[in-house]
Design a protein that fits this description.
The chain is mainly beta and 404 residues long. It has 1 helix and 22 strands. Among the domains are: 1-84, no CATH class; 95-232, Porin, CATH 2.40.160. Helices cover 5% and strands 66% of the residues. The two termini are 30 Å apart.
Amino acid sequence: MKRKILFYVALLSLISMQLAFSQVKFNGWWQSNLYVWESLNENQYWNYYQGLQFRVGPESNSNTYLNTYFRLAYRADLAKWEERVHNVYYHQTFGKNYSFRLGRQFIYHGVINGTVDALKLSGRLGKNLRVHLLGGVEAPYNRELKIQQSDKGSVMGAYALYRFQSRSSIDVSYVHKERNSELYWQQTGATILGYFSEHIYYYARFDYNLLKDSYQTLRGRLTYYQNKWSLTAEYNSMKPRIFEDSFFNIFVINPYNQIRAAVDYKFTSFNLGLQLLHTVYNAADYYILFKDDKDFRVVGTIGHNRYGSFGLIYQTGYAIDNYGYFADLRYDFLSNLSVRFFNSYYNYERASINIGQDALSFMAGLSYKFNRLLMIDGEVQQSANNIYKNDVRGLFRVTYLFGY
């Protein structure tokens, strides 16, 4: 309860500050969620989630601002309040080419991926080269408002992106992580993408694990565009992200390899799609049930710009033959009132039980907007499978957008 009080005091203080200083620009959103559900033993529970995202800075200078998003939650099954600070950082831009961010932030630059409490320096060197430098510590896994000591998870990284004149670009990145003064994650990577011609797009990525002395990710994609058609061929080979000091390093885990082909066709307001995916799981020896097994899937979809999409799925391989469908539909009754409907069915077979089983899910929701600032959503969710014969849940959400 103390954390809840502090949360609201902080909110009121921020609002009071922005009202007192008319030259301060303040915008963001405030969202409340109430989630009602039932456990396996048929006990009724409700969870409450309160989120706040805002950006505040001088009205006359958009290059300086404080940005943050944090959430307060009450978990009825645990009977306690929890808070999570996902980001809170100060941003400053100098001229047109240089900037820095200090604080908790999510980083996704090549092999640098995750939430950190750090300083990020960014700069444009010349016309086409962009560079980012990062140094700090990893954020706590539960995102509590706490900065870890450097010996529990320091992070350093660098990223450089160069854009060519031909609508192509190449980037290189490096990340270095230490815990208890020992190196447990070190990667480098490169990505190149662009157009061979007006109709052919290419993408290639290679990540290398320096500690394992082997590749981490190998991905390539080639797409051909022609009027209303597009054809895509893609190859993926990936290994799990297992840190050097992880328990799972006692196992030898091989990558999975996947080939994907897709075709899309657009006409009027509709879009037709067909995907073929062939995956070789090639797991380690201790996964005897799945060793060197293959999976082949066919996914066909039809979508409409206004009303949503419908798809059929066929899968064969180690899981024998399985079929399924999904429908994600929406309809706007008025400019501010809309309804959404989702339904899916899939039959599957667990590795330990060679018996076919069914999984069914359903969702119906209603959304209403007041003057583009206040949005109210309600959903009824239902699912049924071999474990939950009839699992019904409810979600009520209120979102308020503000700006001063």
